[in-house]
Write a structure and sequence with these properties.
- The structure is a single chain.
- By secondary structure, this protein is mainly alpha-helical.
- The chain has a domain of 47 residues.
- The protein is 26% helix and 5% strand.
- It contains three helices and two strands; from the N terminus they run αββαα.
- It has a two-stranded antiparallel ribbon with strand order 1-2.
- The protein is elongated and about 60 Å long.
């Protein structure tokens, strides 16, 4: 931009497509530490890791399991 006008437009020279896939049970081991069953709520949780370590995959699986209902917690609690 120069003087409020477009001076130069760059061309797109590459594209990156990410093909996401669902990993069933990715959050199975950590779900008992995220859910506060006695109070019927969720603990404040920070998910940290290096790029590509599966943070988004685990988060999506946690959300899917919670949206199915916390009453289904017993099938995950047996592993802890």
């Amino acid at each position: 931009m120069e003087n409020g006008k477009v001076k130069n437009i760059s061309y797109i020279y590459s594209l990156n497509f990410r093909i996401a896939k669902q990993v069933e049970g990715a959050s199975k081991n950590i779900l008992p530490y995220v859910l506060d069953i006695p109070n019927n709520t969720i603990y404040n949780t920070l998910i940290a890791g290096s790029p590509g370590s599966g943070k988004t995959t685990i988060l999506k699986d946690i959300i899917k399991n919670i949206s199915n209902g916390i009453e289904n917690f017993n099938r995950f609690n047996s592993t802890v």
